[in-house]
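WARN no homologs supplied; continuing
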Amino acid sequence: MAFKTDIEIAREAKKKPIMEIGAKLGIPSEHLLPYGHDKAKVSQEFIKSLAGKKDGKLILVTAINPTPAGEGKTTTTVGLGDGLNRIGKKAVICIREASLGPNFGMKGGAAGGGMAQVVPMEEMNLHFTGDFHAITSAHNLLSAMIDNHIYWGNDLGIDERRVVWRRVMDMNDRALRDIVVSLGGVSNGFPRQTGFDITVASEVMAILCLSNDLDDLQKRLGDIVVAYTRDKKPIYCRDIKADGAMTVLLKDAMQPNLVQTLENNPAFVHGGPFANIAHGCNSVIATKTALKLGEYVVTEAGFGADLGAEKFFDIKCRKAGLKPSAAVIVATVRAMKMNGGVAKADLGAENVDAVKKGCPNLGRHIANVKSFGVPVVVAINHFYSDTDAEVAAVKAYVAEQGAEAILCKHWANGSAGIEDLANKVVQLAESGAANFAPLYPDDMPLFQKLQTIAKRIYHADDVIADKSIRDQLKTWEAAGYGHLPICVAKTQYSFTTDPTVRGAPTGHTVPVREVRLSAGAGFIVAICGEIMTMPGLPKVPSAEVIRLNDQGHVEGLF
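OK structure emitted
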């Protein structure tokens, strides 16, 4: 069976001028800064004018742990937004921007797929409106100013061994994980060890995504801890006097990007922290703006609910005062079979027993999301190879967990294929059943917060951490950072820190390799297992097949 590729479908989209999309939401044209005809930024002035308006209902779309079989979380987010508009609700979609690294690696883009996409697909997955470039530049400006300060006499007394601010780039490049800079003599500065992270792991990215406005942005940038003195006194970004210039670089990047779905419904695409190494949600400013403009806002959290949803609830909702009304967990029959032990090459054959065997991964996520006081519905993202018996097995299992699973055919049919889910989401959201609360209180000790996530969400027995890590957490508590939430950097493929362990394992431990203070963003990063904050490219990266064709169109993006 031949299908059009996502990029072919996107290229055939009947897009409307972005001013018309803005008008649907009541955004005057003078408050839209257009980037071409099909994307625009929304002015800070207009966003401030919305302060007194009532909020719509917030719907989170999350998923099971990702598998090579594919789940379709962003596709379902877009499809549900279209579906809600189809049944007469004024709905707005909020998703993240795509990073160049995975686009040219193996993960692909972040615009949805099939008949449930946000367009323009090519621009969104490449340079878009330049937000990631601005974040990269702002981050590296601070890096340059730190080394420059040391070079010109080091008045702040920075201990060169304790510079904690690394550099970033928006690309997967393992060669830059651990490097030595300033080699080559006196004129190049003082040699020291450092490294690069990918831009989506930058604290500047997290700060932009959690800031309410430009003043909040500059304050948070100033709060970044960049280094320590020999007596371990922290040096802040504002001490380096970089916060003002960084804010200037980020001025336009702070404005949410408005685009549209294939069905010409509004979508905000803004910010892009990864969920496996950062907090995995689109920007607070885009979500809050959408809530003022729509009856329903459908947003996603990255990867499985153990990472994305937990961080959405415990970091984004906690910090921004958001209260979700319902959550959708995306699963596929194919992924259930993989969790049940079926190889990717054999997924096309019916195997009801494997589906049943793989369902506990989904069940774990259902229970976890419910534990936050948010009502849950499961979206079965349909593949043409799914059989009625396999779908029935998933539905029966989910019913046993006290939830409902609904078959969704938005990939093939757009909004017409997801009406049942849209109606169920409205029913849940308007029932008033949501009683949201984060997993742990602000005043819980930092290591205990980490243990709480590991035990209650990952179902681990305990957290393993060296005394130096525990002492570091206690030091930060003494310095006034004990109230911050924890952002776990961990593999997305498993509840454990071993990416090969599927299903719903118990009895494992969570080893913490390193902890980092993100004082500006307002959380502590705990790096677990073998996860890297600078990914590498696979043996055969997608970049090898991305090219311009004879018509000048991009090919190979997905």
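The chain is about 35% helix and 20% strand.
OK
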